[in-house]
Amino acid sequence: MSLPVFSLPTLPDAPPKSILALQGLDQALVEAEVVNPSSRLPIIPEGDDVHTGLSERTRKRLIELGITQLFAVQTALLPFLLGSSTTRRSLYEPFDLLRDVCVSAPTGSGKTLAYVLPIVEILSTRIVTHLRALIVLPTRDLVMQVRETLEAIAKGRGLKIGSATGQHSFAHEQSQLVADMSAKLSGGSSKVDILICTPGRLIDHLNGTPNFSLQHLRFLVIDEADRLLAQSFQDWLAQVLAATQPSPRMAPETTKTKRPVSLCDSLAPAFLHLHGEVDLHTDIDEKKHASCQKLLFSATLTSDPGKLAALDLRNPKYFVVQGLSEESEIDGIPNIIAERFTMPEALKEHMIICEAPQKPLMLFHLVHNHSVRNALVFTKSSESASRLVRLFEFFEAAISSSESPIVVRSYSSDLPTNERRTILEKFKAQEVHLLICSDLISRGIDISHVSHVVSYDAPVDIRKYVHRVGRTARAGRTGDAWTLVEEQEAYYFKSMLRSAGHLERVQRMRISEKDTVSLLSAYEVSTRNLLFPRSANDRCGTLSDISAEPPGRVHTVVFGNPVNWSTSTLAGFCRGLTLIAMSRIAFAALRRCHYIHNSHHNRFKLVIDGSHTLHHIRSSFSRLISYFKRRPENFISSMTSSC
Ligand SMILES: Nc1ncnc2c1ncn2[C@@H]1O[C@H](COP(=O)(O)OP(=O)(O)OP(=O)(O)O)[C@@H](O)[C@H]1O
């Protein structure tokens, strides 16, 4: 009798990527409602409108403001938040739990109105003023912008709007937000119905302003949610969420001593039980919940379950505005889960790959040969923004152009708020043509006429890229985004775009030497002026000029992108350091580089950009040393390096 034969064990097939990607994710995210970006709903000025849920008054106001149709995100969100059922529109809903909402929609797609309209519509029915809507934003500038939108929509509705950003003194803000700070009022005492604020100042008021209470909140809006969730300042989110929920530690001392709560002290329904005497218990009592509905918005909403868990979302509903084409799902994984973000449809994206020293020239080329105006130019820091502005001003002064000069200003957190506001006003009035800025305004800022965005320093993560380029092509307009990518960054930048499924949309533009030749001499003059603004006798030349200099002089050749030279590099330059940093392409560049002759110090200096690997630096060093050994007349000095 033969033995039974069993088939060999086999490994089960690995689950497909799409199944693996969904593991551990919130089911609500997987079941997100996908909204087509081209869907629109007309606003009917008169009569009933069952589709949008907006009252006639609000619709008329929208039409006065020139808004005649709702954008995609609004067409999805307004019916959901306003709906026809009265529970959705009530100010308190302690029994029927309201669903929280998360929205991912492209930049400039109208997310602000998507939450401003329901807030105004629902809160307009209120009789007593309580703090019922809290809108948290990451920067002061955004707070001011959202306040303007809210004021425009809520005009004539009697709603009181406040903001807290730290721009005014704490005492002043307290007096604007709270009516009575003298006695302890368990229900709080608010002068405003809606508060727009930054998280830091919000925490200051929660901890330091008597009678500032979040118990009556009907809406908690977190705009630019992914950015704010990444901000752990004083654990702000946990503190805010705790303040919206009743907890035994909020019960006043008076409950223990049986002193009745003052009648004028109006408590939110979910907080009544903390004050035994005013809560009448019956056998059919249902547990009361806080009525606060959380609304989260971003163009780059996170799908990270850990971060979302911190929000303690109540039966959340996700809305994702993205195209329905096959592009919307790669490898069968929905875009939001793969963190592939939808871009505005009318945005054209380009990249220019160049050597670091060429970047200023490329920017001048874009401005002078591609008519880049009304542009935001992003740099990696405020320091490089202000240096680039100076270089630009020298360049504009040096270039003999028939056109009127281009006005450039820097915009960064270094400037006081009032100055920032003035600069922004001038930019909006097109008195300033180019705003060179740090990432301070890369998120949320809405300036309709921005037609170009230039990332002078390439962004290091895809979220930053999405928000920067999203400052143009807003509200259905067209726009162009340019990214200047240094050669050594190109691989990383392209892989970043590739993994976001976005590389094909970014076109590479090649710029040859002859494209920029007409700008070279003005560029050299501007570079020299940036380094030696006080010396009138400075001059620029090429390396071959050095050998024509009499021997015995100390020569240093300047090479690199002067905008990126740190203050210490420049200080070293003035002290006479010979070689400050190296580039992996130093030797190749040396043949083409321009040196700067400082007649005051009578020196030439060689300054080469850092940020390269030690291996490259060493190999460049040895090539340079052997070069100078062969041509000692070209370089007579000790070599000093910061590496
Ligand atoms: N229904 C509409 N009709 C016409 N314009 C609109 C409409 N909704 C919004 N807008 C305009 O579109 C512009 C962009 O809106 P908004 O600032 O809300 O975009 P966003 O989605 O919040 O962008 P970001 O993600 O960059 O913050 C604003 O100028 C706004 O006034």
UniProtKB/TrEMBL annotation:
SUPFAM superfamilies: P-loop containing nucleoside triphosphate hydrolases. The Q motif is unique to and characteristic of the DEAD box family of RNA helicases and controls ATP binding and hydrolysis. PANTHER family: RNA HELICASE (PTHR24031). Residues 92-319 form the Helicase ATP-binding domain. One of its GO terms (molecular function) is RNA binding. InterPro entries: DEAD/DEAH_box_helicase_dom (IPR011545), Helicase_ATP-bd (IPR014001), Helicase_C-like (IPR001650), P-loop_NTPase (IPR027417), RNA-helicase_DEAD-box_CS (IPR000629). Keywords: ATP-binding, Helicase, Hydrolase, Nucleotide-binding, RNA-binding. The keyword Signal does not apply. It comes from the Eukaryota. It catalyses: ATP + H2O = ADP + phosphate + H(+). Its EC number is 3.6.4.13. Residues 346-517 form the Helicase C-terminal domain. This is ATP-dependent RNA helicase. The lineage of its organism: Eukaryota, Fungi, Dikarya, Basidiomycota, Agaricomycotina. RNA helicase. Belongs to the DEAD box helicase family.
